[in-house]
Amino acid sequence: MADIATHDTDHATDHGHHSSTGLSNNKLAMWLFLGSECLLFGGLISTYMLYRGRVQNGPHPSQIYDIPFTSVSSFVLLMSSLTMVLAVSSAQRKDDAKTNLWLVITALLGATFIGGQVYEFTTFYREGLGFTTSLFGSSFYALTGFHGVHVSIGVIMLLSLMGIIKKGKITGDKAEVVELIGLYWHFVDIVWIIIFTLVYLIPS
Amino acid sequence: MSTATDTHADAHEHGMSDAGYVKIAIILAAITALEVSTYYVDFGPLFMPALLTMMVVKFVMVVSYFMHLKFDSKIFSFLFYVGLGLALFVYITALATFKFFIA
Amino acid sequence: MATNELPISSSQSLGAVRRPVNTKGWREWLFTVDHKKLGIMYGCVAFTFFIVGGIEALFIRLQLALPDGRILSADKYNQMFTMHATTMIFLFAMPMAAAFANYFLPLQIGARDVAFPRLNALSFWLFLSGGLILNASWFLGGAADGGWFMYAPNSGPVFSPSNGVDFWVLGLQIAGIASLIGSINLIVTVLNMRAPGMTLMKMPVFTWMILVVQFLLVFSLPVITVALVLLMFQRSYGATFFDVSQGADPLLWQHLFWIFGHPEVYVLILPAFGIISEVLPTFSRKPLFGYPFVVFSGASIGLVGFGVWAHHMFASGLGPVSVAVFSMATMAIAIPTGVKIFNWLLTMWGGKIWYSAAMKFAIGLVVLFTIGGLSGVTHAVAPSDTQQTDTYYIVAHFHYVLFGGMVFGLFSGFYYWWPKVFGKMLNEKLGTWNFWFMVIGMNLTFGPMHILGLQGQPRRMYVWTEARAGEGFFNLGFWNMVSSIGSFILAVGVLFFIINVIKTTRNKERAPLDPWDARTLEWLTTSPPKVHNFDRIPVVHHLDEFFHRKYVEDETTHVMTQVAKGEDLVRAEEAAADADIHMPGASYWPLLLSIGVAVLGMGIIYGTPIMVVGALVVLFSSFGWVLEPSVPEPIDFDSPSHDGHTKEIASLG
């Protein structure tokens, strides 16, 4: 029975023998997933690039983009990557209080970004760019909306993780779980780095 | 049974200090400021190459340092960069057949 | 005891949801995370869809047997060929390969399960949900009717107003998520769960081919996901992606679809290549000729497979440069494929060939796939392809590679591994009947289609007319009739297999532990394998480890002499069994989560309230999943075993 207790903290190396690569199953899976996500966002970005200049109704990209505003929210998301990596490094030092603090800040920054996106979408909508208005509208909302959904899922994961840590009900290695969510979070950030340049800064 | 914890300790050892992360973040912020400045200042023919270069630099910095790929096992880099490479290849090729880069 | 000091477990805190460990009967299957049970379930469901897809094919051939067929209306005919292809590819071929992969991959690498057993169960249930949603459309307003590639804008709301395409999009989306999760799971399994000593270049070729396939899936599925999402947004929420009046480019869908679709054809064929790369050496009594070449050619087929998608679009006006580039790339892919064919031939060369049913199907694959491969090379030549596009010549080509190749490989696998999975031998005599009816039926069905196609009979037309059927040898009527008769001979062949399965199941006689004098690790255990696969995790020293434990090579003469029998080896392993074996515990969450996803999907067609319900189920079961410990707590068991030998206790999540 004692064996059960040791296994509880040990779900990276399975089945009583060490993993062949010495790496964690969970981390391998997360990196594979992120590799796969490259092709998902690649498809949405390409669709946008192909269609961004095709406007038969409604506003043209250059007429509605608010670069100063988007720059601020891009900065917010970029900084959330810093706070996330600080959370990971605190978790690896087993500093629970700091981990929690940085997770809260990361979630808040993420929520700020989402708030900014909601504001941006409503403004654009009022200025005449709906989801169905033009090819530009459809592909813009599909791409940035997909990214927004990813950020939102990240925020939910961060908040849930905090709750689970607080109640002491985490299953598996805590530092690793924080690290995995961190990888996802940084990925969402690098996708935005690309979107910010290709969608907003380079005019069609 | 200690492989998992060992690898973490390693990653941390070869990883960066918190001050290091802050430095990376400052560089990223500076590049972002430079990116945004292209909206106000005319960069002429350098506009596109400069923006794309800065984008790639930011991307690689986050992946290498914040996501630890620089310090982690090469297998992780392989899995991620194969996906990224395929994405670049298929989508750039597809856009090329639309004569996207000629117009 | 240490167990008393454990933190409060979630299974306690969530009250009602005790982990379904130690269940019996149907519950044991519903909540299982055992890769072998899931493999069998994949196989059963996939075979059922094979029958469904086969019946759809027979309807098509009945309609086309005579001029001006009246069996089906034009509309029903469209639904029939769309669903035939969709079912055969997504609901039979892929899951049947997943069945083999699930069952045999962990066994071949000496593991006790896959890396993520609960995710494995989730994959299966999501696949089943996707398959049911796809086929539910028959009863809810008509099935999809746009062809398996569902070209936009034809699949848009204007030209396809029924809900069929919506069901198709949703079903494929969900089945796609299933495959994506499955592929990540299997890659991690291969990378991380190999037995000590099993380096990558000591892995069986089947495992290698499955690994390549999972990489193809993990990087191609997101592309079709994008295409399906765009189409769904257009159909359900009025987006403009494929609306030509808004300036949309119809080729966007074609690119996205075929960037996925071409790797997909290797996803279909490579598992079959893997199977016969196990069968041919075993029944030739020789090691596989040029193992590294077979492995690397498989990997390079996978890689180059990502660079040839536009050869499906030669007739769409891509422009001469694109056509030339993709034409060359396509021809290049014939090289690694040819390498494989020669390796198989040289494996058989000089061997003591045992013509078992499995071997017959494997040889059938080599011959029939080569025919299909050669007609494939004729499509790589763009001018020739422009002539053949959308004719029955294409239909002939891909049925030779898919039926003659993939299906024959899978049947070879059925005969080879049946004694391993069920502990009983399939009848060899019925197997021979099965094989010959299928070979003759398949050649009669698809052979004439080469002639029909070159004569210009278009695909996807629900009738042909006597007036334009031509004269003499090239008369369309004669060859259409031959093809239709052939399809029924083929069906009789499949019927022989079903009879064989029923007969075998009733048979009481147990199969020997090593009936074929096999070569790889899955035979180093009982048939069927125990829950924990291996009594002792094998330590691997050779490629074909099991064979090298039975035979020793003389240093000077290179003659192999048998030193042990398979049975003895299995008994020796049993005698030296590990004391503590920890297996993953069953779980409710995979099933519940997949139900949530299915309901969420249906909400896209039937309205937001249903979507909300689905989303809540998804959220609830995700939390349940995360909070479920990787190990079942002692409280999950009615009577915990205290002797330290229990095999029910899990070690991973």
TrEMBL record, chain A:
Belongs to the cytochrome c oxidase subunit 3 family. One of its GO terms (biological process) is aerobic electron transport chain. It is found in: Cell membrane. Keywords: Cell membrane, Membrane, Transmembrane, Transmembrane helix. It is a multi-pass membrane protein. Residues 1-20 are annotated as: Disordered. It comes from freshwater metagenome. This is Unannotated protein. GO terms for molecular function: cytochrome-c oxidase activity. GO terms for cellular component: plasma membrane. Residues 1-204 form the Heme-copper oxidase subunit III family profile domain. Residues 1-17 have a biased composition (Basic and acidic residues). Its main location: membrane. The chain crosses the membrane at residues 28-51, 71-89, 101-119, 139-165, 177-202. The keyword Transmembrane helix applies. Pfam families: COX3.
From TrEMBL, chain B:
The keyword rRNA-binding does not apply. The chain crosses the membrane at residues 21-40, 46-66, 78-102. It holds the Pfam family COX4_pro. It is found in: Cell membrane. It comes from freshwater metagenome. GO terms for cellular component: plasma membrane. Keywords: Cell membrane, Membrane, Transmembrane, Transmembrane helix. This is Unannotated protein.
From TrEMBL, chain C:
GO terms for molecular function: cytochrome-c oxidase activity; heme binding; metal ion binding. Pfam families: COX1 (PF00115), Cyt_c_ox_IV (PF12270). The keyword DNA damage does not apply. One of its GO terms (biological process) is oxidative phosphorylation. InterPro entries: Cyt_c_oxase-like_su1_dom, Cyt_c_oxase-like_su1_sf, Cyt_C_Oxase_1, Cyt_c_Oxase_su1_BS, Cyt_c_oxidase_su1_bac, Cyt_c_oxidase_su4_actinobac. Its EC number is 7.1.1.9. Gene3D superfamilies: 1.10.287.70, Cytochrome c oxidase-like, subunit I domain (1.20.210.10). Keywords: Cell membrane, Copper, Electron transport, Heme, Iron, Membrane, Metal-binding, Respiratory chain, Translocase, Transmembrane, Transmembrane helix, Transport. One of its GO terms (cellular component) is plasma membrane. NCBIfam families: CtaD_CoxA. This is cytochrome-c oxidase. It comes from freshwater metagenome. The lineage of its organism: unclassified sequences, metagenomes, ecological metagenomes.
